[in-house]
From TrEMBL:
<keyword id="KW-0684">Rhamnose metabolism</keyword>
<protein>
    <submittedName>
        <fullName>Rhamnulokinase</fullName>
        <ecNumber>2.7.1.5</ecNumber>
    </submittedName>
</protein>
<keyword id="KW-0067">ATP-binding</keyword>
<dbReference type="Pfam" id="PF02782">
    <property type="entry name" value="FGGY_C"/>
</dbReference>
<keyword id="KW-1015">Disulfide bond</keyword>
<dbReference type="InterPro" id="IPR018485">
    <property type="entry name" value="FGGY_C"/>
</dbReference>
<dbReference type="GO" id="GO:0008993">
    <property type="term" value="F:rhamnulokinase activity"/>
</dbReference>
<dbReference type="GO" id="GO:0005524">
    <property type="term" value="F:ATP binding"/>
</dbReference>
<keyword id="KW-0808">Transferase</keyword>
<dbReference type="GO" id="GO:0005829">
    <property type="term" value="C:cytosol"/>
</dbReference>
<dbReference type="GO" id="GO:0019301">
    <property type="term" value="P:rhamnose catabolic process"/>
</dbReference>
<dbReference type="InterPro" id="IPR018484">
    <property type="entry name" value="FGGY_N"/>
</dbReference>
<keyword id="KW-0418">Kinase</keyword>
<dbReference type="GO" id="GO:0004370">
    <property type="term" value="F:glycerol kinase activity"/>
</dbReference>
<dbReference type="InterPro" id="IPR013449">
    <property type="entry name" value="Rhamnulokinase"/>
</dbReference>
<keyword id="KW-0547">Nucleotide-binding</keyword>
<dbReference type="GO" id="GO:0006071">
    <property type="term" value="P:glycerol metabolic process"/>
</dbReference>
Amino acid sequence: MTLMKLLAIDLGASSGRVMQAIYNGHSIQLSEVHRFKNEPMNVNDGLYWNILHLFGEIKIGIKKASADGIPIRSISVDTWGVDYAYLDQNGDLLYQPHCYRDNRMGQYEETFYKKISKEALFDETGVQPACINTVLQIFADLQEKPHLARVAERVLFMPDLINYLLSGVLSSEYTIASSSGLLNINSQTWSDCVFETLGIPKKWFGEVIQGGKVLRSLSPRITQELKIEPFDVIAGAGHDTAAAVLAIPYASEQPTAFISCGTWSLVGLESQNPVTSQEALAANLTNEGCFDGRYRILKNTTGLWIIQELQRDWRLQGEDVSFAEMVNLARNVTNNRSWINPNDAIFAAPGDMEAKVKERCHMTNHPVPQSKGEVVRVVLESLVFAYRQTVEQIESLTGQKIEQIHMVGGGIQNELLCQLTADVSQKPVLTGPIEASALGNILAQLLTLGEIKDRQTAQKLIKDSEKTKQYHPQEDSDLARSYQKFQASMKVGS
């Protein structure tokens, strides 16, 4: 077949990329075309994303991708969840989208949960109640700016907003909507209960698109500006974790947990059915949507954030320690007996991370780590203990025995983390691809266009395109025994 070029806009909460995929009918060759920063802006009344800047960078990436003369077939967008923008009756942006780290929601939480309890909200939507969730953000907006009910005509989540700027078509893609707290967990459509209880106008949201849809060709204004030929804009897997999960080349039909590992780690399981019991609520599990309509039962846990912050702190102190050096230092520590709760709120804020780790060890009567290697080892072992606990919670609540774990994302380049995950869980761990979100974005486009027929074909395509690596658990591992001590002294995920 003729080579086909597809573009993936992969936006994270700190950076964005335009990725290019060349598809030859048998494999995908992925490369980065353009990378740019994405930082929220402090304005007088809050924290906002600069969507106009981001869109300008996206256009630069599209222009670069067209330079080699290979026609672009389509483009799609994946981003983080929960954030959104308001449009007026003319389709114009009312103001820049708020960032989920904005603090406006806190003062309205009590009022919000008086209208709908956490238990009722979780039972209705399957989404773990959290201050950053779309539903609470919109409720806060309506308290602060009641005129929105009159002047706003549409709400678009971040990937839907960028698709709109590219194509002029309004859409509501399922995977990104599924994390909002606005969908009924069973019908996978907008929840009348939530809208009516909280006074949110249902007219703001369009029909939910599931399984991908070609929206329209790239806007003529953009094709003229960039001097390029038009191509399709696709609503694919808009949520970056849904995209990443779509790209997992599962090794067998056995129940397999996934870990999408980066700054944060998403630990979960794909399932035909959601889990909305009060036990799941207490375990901090959430239910989000997959591209094919299934569910991702998962927990958002700390990933390599603490490690990244340790590196930043040491650099500020004049010591430039690479990630590879940090891993080697930790690998040489063989007698660790100290652990932390990596999900403790104290580790969420940046700065003084080494001191925070040592303080928590002291407070929980663990030996205080002294060397850099000991500090890193404490963090890595604690992370994989938290992974195992989440896997066990999912097993208990779904009744499924998980036989193996598949890890994707940038964190899998830390081979010590992957081996520790195998040793602690006592399950085989398979890793790859690193660029899971971008590849899942591309797969969603190929499925929507009919170039590949189903999920099994997509998995084979990834296996033929990307390298994977397997880690076998060490039998009779001290780490597996240490996990019991960790459980006894910590309250991970509580």
